[in-house]
Amino acid sequence: MVTLTFIQHSGEQHVVKTPTGLTVMEVARDNNIPGIDADCGGACACSTCHVYVDPSWIGKLPPKEEMEADLLDFAHEPNPETSRLTCQIEVTDVLDGLIVRIPVQQG
Ligand code: FES
Q1: What phi and psi, each to the nearest 5 degrees, are found at residue 57?
Q2: Domains of the chain, first to last
Q3: 86 CA to middle of ligand 1, Å?
Q4: pLDDT (tens digit, 9 = 90+) per residue, 33-84?
Q5: Given a cut of 80, is residue 107 above it in pLDDT?
Q6: Whether the Cβ atoms of residue 24 and residue 98 lie closer than 8 Å to each other
Q7: Which of 1, 6, 64, 85 lies 20 to 30 Å (CA to CA) from residue 51?
């Protein structure tokens, strides 16, 4: 099990424990985290699963595929350094402790 922390724009934190193998979006959905709507179901086609990854974790994530990078251009106020689509991040042991922030527009 690994621990993920989702932080709403209000500062409210949701700490969840999850097995590996799911995507961060699936973990958010399964735990009713507000603000991760995931309208396309994880097909990398909607950007409603956008988050800002805590800067200390950026280097531990696998790099963005081109499709994710392209779609992030359509997210609201993407940050070139920290924005990611949670449906494209698989939860692995390396990500134990990951912290992501949900954009205000999704909160
Ligand atoms: Fe639609 Fe991630 S769920 S892009």
Answers
A1: -105, -10
A2: 2-101 (3.10.20.30)
A3: 7
A4: 999 999 999 999 999 999 999 999 999 999 999 999 999 998 989 999 999 9
A5: no
A6: yes
A7: 1
